[in-house]
């Protein structure tokens, strides 16, 4: 059994990319110091903030909520609330919501739940079915991603939030990076920076990716050690339909063989985000239907609704 590199006790985790191992206590300290470093380095928060944490009920967002709940106790100028978007994926989100409610109640965090059905009149399952009937070629993750992003932004603003936290981790970020590259979507790369939404348009709330520099595995361990790991883990039924699944397998294989691959990709990404600053200067306007930010005359959500026949343009 490996020993903790700090105290010599039995290790629970070895970070192969840095050749060090940690016991439970030192893992948690190390985890905390790294997330704090990310927060400072990228200037995620100021002294006075209303932090809205986007939660799904999965391990990453429950960890983000737990972590920031503890941190916010030490910062008098911070208010912390949670926002959950219920897409309406039966056998998946309904189960995850129970885990969210348990943790939110334990922590005593205020929260708001909004749903696709309330906002669009249809759950994601229904949108997928309507899309199929109409012969649209979108994957479920397209509807989900576009609508979630939109609803999170709009609702966090309504709640009076000053910054929206998502629980994206290192793995999520580098997977999306490769995904964008494989699709020729270089324009989307600036969205993968640690902080987005600032300066681009007044209709966007500032968004930060809390676990930007933390591998998924380590967020999982944090969740397990703090007893917030979802009691009933279910995979999203649509996950394997996304090319992300293949990229994820590929990246995990690379990391296994060549530890440090994911961090190297993150460094390349940060460099590119910096280099691309001001290159794709889309000045979004306002959607003429709903008033939210839009790159054209109509925003992406209103466009999708029109394609699905649930909105007349
Ligand atoms: Zn130790
Ligand atoms: Zn719109």
What do these coordinates show?
The chain has 313 residues and is an alpha/beta fold. It is 45% helix and 15% strand. The protein has 3 domains: 1-41, no CATH class; 44-280, Rossmann fold (3-Layer(aba) Sandwich); 282-313, no CATH class. The protein has helices spanning 24-41, 59-72, 93-107, 116-120, 124-133, 140-158, 170-182, 216-225, 244-257, 261-275, 300-307; strands at 13-15, 20-22, 49-55, 78-86, 110-115, 163-169, 195-196, 206-211, 285-286, 293-294. A 6-stranded mixed β-sheet has the order 5-4-3-6-8-7, sandwiched between helices. A hairpin with a 4-residue loop joins strand 1 and strand 2. The structure holds zinc ion (2 copies). The site of one zinc ion has 7 residues, from helix 1.
How would you name the CATH homologous superfamily of the largest domain? HUPs
Roughly how much helix do the residues carry, as a percent range? 40-55%
Separate helix tally: 11
CATH class of the largest domain: Alpha Beta
Low-pLDDT parts are none
Mean pLDDT: 93
Biggest β-sheet: strands ordered side by side in the sheet: 5-4-3-6-8-7
Supply the number of structural domains.
3
Span from first to last CA?
Answer: 64 Å
Tell me, what's the shape? globular
Please report which band the strand proportion falls in: under 5%, 5-15%, 15-25%, 25-35%, 35-45% or over 45%. 15-25%
Query: What structural class do the secondary elements suggest?
Result: alpha/beta
Overall number of strands:
10
Q: Under the CATH scheme, which architecture of the largest domain would be assigned?
A: 3-Layer(aba) Sandwich
Bound molecules: zinc ion
Q: Provide the gyration radius in Å.
A: 20 Å
Q: In sequence order, what are the helices and strands, one letter per element? A: EEHEHEHEHHHEHEEHHHEEH
